[in-house]
């Protein structure tokens, strides 16, 4: 027969087990599922749409910039070679093909495709998220502001596109600088990987982002004019597509042309940069070498044609590939 203290211990353990069982049963029956916080629920609802927009943006941006690569190569060569600039677009094409072969018009193919694939995914994905975030934040903090007012919507489009492009530039910068080196100096490297290795070996990893400031000077105005302009034109015309894309592309080319000229001369268009193999000049150095402000618009004709084609193709593909409609901004 067990001793008294053993029996007491057993009774205590049995009572404790029964009490725990009753507590578990009652908590299982009484606890209702907790509602998801509104902000978290909206984020979960918006995630598939944002991912879909990022995928559509990556494909459309990569495809459009790949198709128009010869125009971009021609523009870069005209900006970096005064002799070609005097010949005009048609004469420059003939001179490049005659001296370097037709393959020269596709120089930088791989870094161009890789860079704009990443840039398109980040740009369009963050742009769509930014529009939602800015709209909800403004509606919450400033209830007196009508977020559907055209002027307010334009401001939201401008802020969203600028923020998205700043982040996208960080992904684009290494590939864009590599492409410019390969275009302006055909002997720089035979492959994209070889060009990247040479840049890192000669100048260090950080040099891949040395041109990020001039790239932003070009890309941020370009993207703001392109995306906000496309949204505004689509809203006024009642539909998007090719025509708003063409007009937005020409406008984006005009406002960003000075930044494009500066970027080209910093990363390959000057004798100092070619001899040193790096983006050695600053924006101030480039501006100091300009004989006249009109030099900031050298190559605008070919670039406007390229940007109009790029934007028309890009928005056509983007509208076809992205999710049908965004989730509601509030519920």
From TrEMBL:
Solcar repeats lie at residues 48-133, 152-236. It holds the Pfam family Mito_carr. It is found in: Mitochondrion inner membrane. Residues 1-25 form the signal peptide. GO terms for molecular function: phosphate transmembrane transporter activity. InterPro entries: MCP, MCP_dom_sf, MCP_transmembrane, SLC25A3/Pic2/Mir1-like. PROSITE patterns: SOLCAR. One of its GO terms (cellular component) is mitochondrial inner membrane. Gene3D superfamilies: Mitochondrial carrier domain. Belongs to the mitochondrial carrier (TC 2.A.29) family. This is Mitochondrial carrier protein. The lineage of its organism: Eukaryota, Sar, Stramenopiles, Ochrophyta, Pelagophyceae.
């Amino acid at each position: 027969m067990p001793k008294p203290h053993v029996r007491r211990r057993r009774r205590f353990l049995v009572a404790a087990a029964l009490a725990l069982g009753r507590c578990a049963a009652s908590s299982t029956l009484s606890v209702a599922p907790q509602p998801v916080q509104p902000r978290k629920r909206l984020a979960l609802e918006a995630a598939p749409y944002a991912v879909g927009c990022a995928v559509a943006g990556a494909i459309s941006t990569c495809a459009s910039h790949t198709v128009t690569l010869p125009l971009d190569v021609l523009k870069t060569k005209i900006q970096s070679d005064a002799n070609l600039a005097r010949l005009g677009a048609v004469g420059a094409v003939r001179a490049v093909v005659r001296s370097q072969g037709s393959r020269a018009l596709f120089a930088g193919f791989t870094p161009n495709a890789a860079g704009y694939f990443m840039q398109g995914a980040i740009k369009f994905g963050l742009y769509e998220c930014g529009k939602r975030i800015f709209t909800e934040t403004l509606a919450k903090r400033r209830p007196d502001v009508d977020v559907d007012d055209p002027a307010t919507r334009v401001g939201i489009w401008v802020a969203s596109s600028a923020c998205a492009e700043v982040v996208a530039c960080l992904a684009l910068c290494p590939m864009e600088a590599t492409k410019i080196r390969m275009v302006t100096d055909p002997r720089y490297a035979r492959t994209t990987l070889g060009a990247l290795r040479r840049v890192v070996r000669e100048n260090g990893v950080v040099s891949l982002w040395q041109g990020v400031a001039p790239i932003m000077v070009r890309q941020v105005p370009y993207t703001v004019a392109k995306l906000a302009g496309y949204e505004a034109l689509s809203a006024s015309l009642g539909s998007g597509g090719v025509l708003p894309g063409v007009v937005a592309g020409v406008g984006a080319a005009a406002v960003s042309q000075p930044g494009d000229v500066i970027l080209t001369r910093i990363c390959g268009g000057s004798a100092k940069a070619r001899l040193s193999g790096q983006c050695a000049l600053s924006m101030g150095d480039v501006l100091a070498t300009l004989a006249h402000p009109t030099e900031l618009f050298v190559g605008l004709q070919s670039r406007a044609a390229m940007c109009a084609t790029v934007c028309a193709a890009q928005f056509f593909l983007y509208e076809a590939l992205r999710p049908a409609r965004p989730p509601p901004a509030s519920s």
